[in-house]
Amino acid sequence: MITGSLVALITPMTLDGAVDAKKLDDLIEFHIQAGTHGIVAVGTTGESSTLTTEEHANVIRQVVETVKGRVPVIAGTGANATHEAIDLTRSAKNAGADACLLVTPYYNKPTQEGLYQHFKAIAEAVDIPQILYNVPGRTACDMQNETVVRLSAIKNIVGVKDATGDLERGEALINAVPSDFAVYSGDDPTAVSLMLLGGKGNISVTANVAPKMVAQAAEQALSGLSDQAHATDSAIASLHQNLFLESNPIPVKWACSQLGLCDEGIRLPLTLLSQPHHSAVRQAMIEAGVL
């Protein structure tokens, strides 16, 4: 089972919006040296929605090749068309990813039965461990706990990223799924609390900027060290909040650029972080001790 701090990795870009392969390699080394437990490539934070299919596959392949098995690589392969998600998932398997992360279909708003059939079809088509991803605030599609429980019976559906931030709902889900099915947090402010309730890790935006502290908080929470985990997490609480002042990944890419990890490049319709937010994000980085 993949556990711990799993960075939702940004896709570094030059100022003209081209994927920066050199910075991507550097980022991977940065995270491995910082103790990040796994890398999620081309998820929401990795701008999956604006990469071409070829770029999507190339980034996943590069991450796998650069990691060289040192930590697990989870490839974002979700789509709102089932056939497209199957193609992306098959490509990620062929590239050597350890698992895939599949967001609920966005915009077309399927029923719960539609969600079940969508994920079942992908799992049956591609034999690779698959992690469901529920983020209704972005997709306008909310996969209910009962649907996740149904899907947990499929052998290669091994977990879910719950980005609802609802701890009561998350705890109910943890208690309802089999013990070998992982529930991951997709919400940095509540991740430590969810892990203390039995969650297996944190697919984290904040880890892009403060990887050592996010990894430490995860290790403490997974060891049941509640006071220590909350204390570590409190030092980066301002980052959790301020990295969402504008749509993710706008603030986190700006923050990473301030650390020299990448340029500010981002693709339309996303734009550079608005000037009025620079001071708040910079102050959060100072408070976290990363700047």
Automatic annotation (TrEMBL):
Keywords from the named record: Amino-acid biosynthesis, Cytoplasm, Diaminopimelate biosynthesis, Lyase, Lysine biosynthesis, Schiff base
Location(s) in or outside the cell: Cytoplasm
Entries under SUPFAM superfamilies matching the protein: Aldolase
Protein family membership: Belongs to the DapA family.
Pathway: Amino-acid biosynthesis; L-lysine biosynthesis via DAP pathway; (S)-tetrahydrodipicolinate from L-aspartate: step 3/4
Protein known as: 4-hydroxy-tetrahydrodipicolinate synthase
Pfam families: DHDPS (PF00701)
Molecular functions (GO terms): 4-hydroxy-tetrahydrodipicolinate synthase activity
PANTHER family xrefs: 4-HYDROXY-2-OXOGLUTARATE ALDOLASE, MITOCHONDRIAL, DIHYDRODIPICOLINATE SYNTHASE
Site (Part of a proton relay during catalysis): T44, Y107
Lineage: Bacteria, Pseudomonadati, Pseudomonadota, Gammaproteobacteria, Oceanospirillales
Entry-linked InterPro entries: Aldolase_TIM (IPR013785), DapA (IPR005263), DapA-like (IPR002220), Schiff_base-form_aldolases_AS (IPR020625), Schiff_base-form_aldolases_CS (IPR020624)
